[in-house]
Amino acid sequence: MLVIRSKTNNPAFNIATEEYLLKNKNEDCFYLYINDPSIIIGKHQNSLAEINVEYVKQNNIIVVRRLSGGGAVFHDPGNLNFSFIKNIGKQDKIIDFRKYTQPILDVLNNIGVNAKFEGRNDLTIDGKKFSGNAKHFYQDKILQHGTLLFSSKLPDLSSALKINPLKYSDKAVKSVRSRVTNISEHLNLKLTLEEFERLIIDHISSIYDDTKRYELTDIDIEAISDLVKNKYGSWDWNFGSSPKYNYQKGIKTKGGHIEVNLEVIKGVIRNVKIFGDFFNKRDIVELEDKLKGLEHNHEAIKSGLNGIEIDNYFSNTNVEEFVEGLF
After folding, report:
1. Which residues contact 226 (CB under 8 A, 6 or more apart)?
2. Terminus-to-terminus CA distance in the chain, angstroms?
3. Mind giving me the DSSP string for 61-72?
4. Closest CA relative to residue 99, chosen from 126, 133, 72, 67
5. What would the pLDDT profile of 50-97 be if each residue is shown by its tens digit?
6. Closest Cα partner for 161 from 38, 43, 77?
7. Phi and psi based region of residue 152 (left: phi greater than 0; alpha: psi -120 to 50; beta: remaining)
8. What does residue 249 show for φ and ψ, rounded to 5 degrees?
9. Which pLDDT tens digit goes with each residue over 160-194?
10. Residue 138 CB coordination number (10 Å)
11. Sign of dihedral through CA atoms 150, 135, 2, 90?
């Protein structure tokens, strides 16, 4: 088994590395990484419906869609992420998260932390979640990865994943919010995140044969960087891959109330209806038509409305507050 410790906190690079190892390395791999503040979205989720858009934007939190299913998770420098990438037989393709979370439980139990596997894919301490796990099958291989909240800023986690009062109607998988805790709060002896990480690596080395440390080569890094450029760092993958959804929100302005209704398919606005008690000089249908075909993201909409005098459609309203109301 190759034990690999990431040298970057770039979430897009680290998530891309998991796919690269899964699809390009014949050996089993155990991969550890820590990300800068980011939200990692499950493959089948509607990205915008999982995040607090305003908070994420103000705090420069990166949003990355991963290869596996499941719910959205918050990463920061106090959260350690682990991945098992293993060759398995066809008969082993069973959705059971216990096998690859047990080593983590062993480490914690050995240092006196009463950690347990609960529910479908969670690790808990005293009923509070500190690890969520997800998996993805590729040919006869498995990728199972999980979070380990060690000393994360839990208020940031809560704020980043707290949904604004928006209305989304879709069939995407929704995250289930749980009470969470940090591992560090339950330690009898002081332990740094680096020391905890070392305990995990030592334990993995003791239970898997032929374990050896591996550093990504220049060839590996170049291929992973291409994955970041073409996939994990792109709007198309992180937002455009969201399932079809309908979005509805009321915008309160000095000029009156505006209700926006969008139908979004593959991240692109396909249908628009705008209602409200506002006053206008020009037919609102003109504005609806200008929004159709634009990507449902701030930059695309601002660009598409460039040169438009929004006051012609909504009196006493500026472009910024109208665009913000679309998220």
Report:
1. none
2. 44
3. -EEEE-SS-S--
4. 133
5. 888 888 989 999 999 999 988 889 999 999 999 999 998 765 666 678
6. 38
7. beta
8. -155, 145
9. 986 644 455 565 555 555 689 999 999 998 899 99
10. 12
11. positive
